[in-house]
Amino acid sequence: MSKITSDKIKPVRKAVIPVAGWGTRFLPATKAMPKEMLPIVDTPTIQYIVEEAVSSGIEQICLVTSHTKKAIEDHFDRTLELEALLEAGGKTEYLKQIRDIADMVEIVSVRQKVAKGLGHAVLCAKSFVGDEPFAVLLGDDVVYNDGTPCLKQLIDVYNDKGGTVLGVQTVAHENICKYGCVDGDKIGDRLYTVHDMIEKPKPEDAPTDVGVLGRYVITPEIFEKLENTTPGAGGEIQLTDALKALAAEQDMYAYDFVGRRYDVGDRLGFLEATVEYALRRDDLKDDFKAYLKNILTK
Asked: Of 9, 36, 234, 286, whose CA is between 20 and 30 Å from 81?
């Protein structure tokens, strides 16, 4: 088992965000709109993910897209006609807001031309990543933390330990079948070693209730594993399989991150995020809370 020494730990500057999926659970809304553009209050889901990455120190982001996701690329680009309209109308607050979105970070995109799974999506970003450690953030998971962003917590562990770090939380035993399950030993406050991973096990077969929840810091050796991973059901290359192979050769960790995680790929999770983010907004919370109280009393 190899360990990256402290003098060889490179900074985590790049992030990969796979956004090529169809979003069938949100049909018919996603028939013509990427699921990542569905708004939580007035902000697209993908923007929350990008803002978390930027707040964690990420300098470059690669969106792994498909031909149906141009709206995501456009959202992070300049829109000169709209800017001119807002400027002429004196709407300086909105003008600053949309310019800040375009200027927040360097974003590139690559196409996942065939849907071959999460592992294949990450592999599509190989040229972008190069030989650096990198983050992966899944668009179905929004994590709220008003202190240290979720990804920053994982990067801090990587900077200390030097190995791949999986973002995890303990989930209800009956729900472990929805996630990748970590088999390992607890070695510190919220920190585990990773010996093995099981993708979506039956609850009776799960070694723990520690589920992987959409955030990773990964060493670049993962690409060699992905290139040699045998496709599974549906011809998909699973990131979990490649991570298991990597864990057999390198130290790997799982960190039980602090934060309220929303599964916005699920209708109920999306509604929970919408309600709770609205209740955190100074411009909305009082009126919205009164409205909810009125609804509940009826």
From this structure: 36
Alpha-carbon separation of residue 115 from 54, 120, 200 (angstroms): 27, 8, 20
Domain ranges of the chain: 12-265, 266-298
The region, left, alpha or beta by phi > 0 then psi within -120 to 50, assigned to residue 62 is: beta
Residues 106, 59: contact at Cβ < 8 Å?
Answer: yes
Local structure of 16: helix, strand or coil: strand
Please, how many CA atoms are within 13 Å of residue 95, restricted to the half-sphere of its CB?
A: 12
Q: Which amino acid is at 169?
A: Q
| CA angle in degrees (0–180, nearest 5) for 69-131-225 | 75
> pLDDT by residue (tens digit) across 220-242?
999 999 999 988 777 889 999 99
Within 8 A by CB and 6+ apart from 183, the residues are 194, 195, 196, 197, 198, 207, 208
CA dihedral defined by 160, 166, 172, 178, rounded to 10 degrees?
A: 180
Q: Residue holding tokens 């992070």? A: 76
Two tokens, residue 88: 């002429």
Q: Given the DSSP bridges, would you call strands 196-199 and 180-183 parallel, antiparallel or unpaired?
A: antiparallel
CATH of span 12-265: 3.90.550.10
Contact 195, 109 (CB under 8 A): no
pTM of the model: 0.92
User: What's phi and psi for 184, nearest 5 deg?
Assistant: -170, -170
Structure tokens at 9: 């730990």
Q: Is 109 helix (H, G, I), strand (E, B) or coil?
A: strand
Asked if residues 238 and 229 have their Cβ atoms less than 8 Å apart, the reply is yes
How do strand 164-170 and strand 252-256 relate by DSSP bridges? parallel
Mean pLDDT on 157-176 = 93
- Hey, what are 122's tokens? 């990450």
